[in-house]
Design goal:
single chain; about 220 residues; alpha/beta; Rossmann fold; DNA polymerase, domain 1; 2 domains; five-stranded parallel β-sheet; 9 helices; 5 strands
Length: about 220
């Protein structure tokens, strides 16, 4: 098969406006022990990384005792899920986008650095559960983003080559993983930039460039 056949989406900050939820949940857990991640640090260093990686960075940079990692991780997941229950709701823009992409014939999947239970809650809460063939969480791979393993696994499940997929990502670790998977990467600055017209235009541009490179294909 030639051309783009699938679109893979990151979840937090792309399909669901959840970046702030993770920030607030982790700081709530850290605050119990006198630690915090400042907003600038979150945006420039921590956003998009799994919680375990964030905790390790805090131990190196701020002296967070590693013995606290399991408890803080557990509290953070609890607080995140509380945020999801209260704040996660369907977005017409997202519902329209994924349904249109499906009508256009594209296969869709989600690849998230969150834990499986949080991914399930967000996909259900956003009303998008029936629109994706599958989702992958950080519990489904040995190495989460920025390692490309998650995206390579998704491509394998779909049975397609990297050149046949577009990945939509917003945060540095996810963008790095997507680029290293060799798929096409549609970078967005966050939830507000994720819309059907933008992604469809990106795919059409790829096809136009391919056609220009292969004028004899028609």
């Amino acid at each position: 098969m030639n051309g783009i056949s699938a679109v893979l989406f990151d979840l937090d900050g792309v399909l669901v406006d959840a970046t702030e939820w993770h920030y607030e949940a982790l700081n709530k857990a850290l605050g119990l022990f006198g630690y915090a991640i400042h907003r600038y640090e979150h945006l420039t260093e921590y956003n998009g990384l799994p919680t375990q990686k964030k905790l390790e960075m805090l131990s190196v940079e701020k002296g967070l005792p590693r013995a606290l990692h399991p408890l803080i991780w557990k509290l953070k997941q609890k607080y995140t899920q509380e945020e999801i229950f209260v704040k996660c709701s369907p977005s017409f823009t997202m519902e329209y986008m994924v349904k249109q992409l499906r009508r256009d014939g594209y296969r869709l999947a989600v690849c998230s650095n969150s834990i499986r239970s949080s991914v399930e809650l967000m996909i259900r809460g956003s009303g998008l559960a029936d629109d994706f063939e599958f989702f992958l969480s950080n519990e489904d791979v040995k190495k989460p983003k920025p390692d490309p393993e998650m995206y390579i696994e998704a491509l394998n499940r779909l049975g397609i080559q990297p050149s046949q997929a577009v990945i939509v990502e917003d945060a540095g670790p996810g963008i790095q993983a997507a680029l290293e998977s060799k798929a096409h990467v549609c970078q967005v600055s966050g939830f507000g930039e994720v819309e059907y017209e933008r992604i469809r235009s990106y795919i059409d541009h790829l096809q136009e460039a391919k056609d220009a490179d292969n004028p004899d294909a028609h």
